[in-house]
Design a protein that fits this description.
Length: 483
Amino acid sequence: MKTIQRMQRIAIVGGGLGGLTCAKYLADAGMNVRIYEGLPFLGGRASTFRDDDGEWIEQGLHLFLGSYSEFRTLLTEIGRPAEDILYWIDQLHLHDPQGPAATYGVNPIFAPLRTILGALSQNDYLGPLDKLSLAPLTAPALTSIENLRSKYDSLTVTEWWRQTGGTDDVLERVLRPFCRAVQFSEPEQFSAFDFLGWAHQSIYGLLQLRLAGYKGAREELIFRPLAEYLQQRGATVQTGIQLRQIEYEESQKSLSGLLMADGQRVVADVYVIAIPAWAFAPLIPMPLRRLPYFEGIAKLPVAPAISVQLWLDRVAADNPDFYLVCREPTPVYQEQSQLTYRTASGGRISVIVSPADHLLDWEDEALVRMVHQSLGKVNAAIAAATVTKSVVLKHPQHLVRPLPFAMSSRPKQATPVPNLFLAGDWTSRSSSAAKKAPSGVERLARRQSSSSFMKRSFDACLMQQTLKLWSIDGVNAAHGVCS
Ligand SMILES: Cc1cc2nc3c(=O)[nH]c(=O)nc-3n(C[C@H](O)[C@H](O)[C@H](O)COP(=O)(O)OP(=O)(O)OC[C@H]3O[C@@H](n4cnc5c(N)ncnc54)[C@H](O)[C@@H]3O)c2cc1C
């Protein structure tokens, strides 16, 4: 076990949710924290920034899940409680351009009637046979994560669905848009284990099964307040500082410093790398690359995504709900002009384009036309609207692609190098915690733990255990640094 003294110097590279969360808990624990972010603003893939017109742009459409207990705690602790910055949404719309649409309640506790009646009715979207074929989803989802892993990680969602005798309509109208929307990948590229992990999490977290949207730009709601919180606790936050080289001292078997693009050399006692795997892989020092641990990082498969934001001459949806669209490369969109980025006139929608692999070399105008037409097939108001402005953000690498065995081979946050830790959504918790069997044991440990820091770490473990792919997993890294 690694032990470090309080007030030792911690350098964190990457100011996304992972790096900032890690920084927050280390600063709370009394460490001397410095954060280096390559972009001019914080937030990484969840960031928002202003364009030349002064309008907020988001890297990609984001929703908040009710089960993000860690994230909610963090928001409360930095003085931005979830209730202040989010609005809750209790339904989800699904549209098939070749057929009908349906609206399903997503919250059996807060919207029980809508959820139950919605599931039982709307037979033109999913007929009785389709609904029956959904039953096999619940049985595996009720088993432990370890069982899920051993039984289903070798199968794709489509293979598993065929084996259960599931219907084509469920595959095309529910599973495919879901896989495209959450992980930018087809069900043929999506491990059944990861998919069932989401189902597992939903079933066990039934009380928190809610969706939320943001009441504004995340820069103002989360990242600036988080940076201020850190600075008040003595941390330094530098943006626009790119990591260029990681120095490794072979004789000491530890890192000796970081070289930044502006020429400064950063020396610390502990280094936390909280940049994406694909940005870290080319920076891994040569002597470390042959270690299986680091070799695996370069091999993680990655999915691209394209984010398109359209300004329209009219409001094209009368609610801020999330819309899943099947059979089109626009699996999810949201109208944002009323609650998120308020505009005096017209509408504004944010769209994820996925799978994006074959669309990355398209011209922006062609993509905008395609998105407009695609959404126009399921929403007459969008079809009738004129696009008055558009922003296209292409991200060739954006999330780990959840191919069979990919998510379960994510690296642990404690590396073989004693003074190097990793954080971020592509990392996984420590193997000792992973082996700890049932979540009940962890719950007991949490109850008995007097330290709130330990509690948070156990919460983070639990989050990882339920395979929350979008977790703010810097909490666990912070715990690793402290332990
Ligand atoms: C389009 C899209 C939609 C998503 N939707 C949701 C959603 O609805 N809900 C949800 O919970 N999650 C969602 N996610 C996932 C969520 O955004 C990520 O899991 C989370 O933001 C990852 O945080 P991170 O800190 O691990 O990585 P990042 O956010 O990628 O942070 C890494 C940081 O490192 C910086 N960096 C990289 N290289 C260097 C370098 N050499 N030197 C210095 N800094 C560097 C980057 O600029 C970045 O700021 C979505 C992701 C995408 C891409």
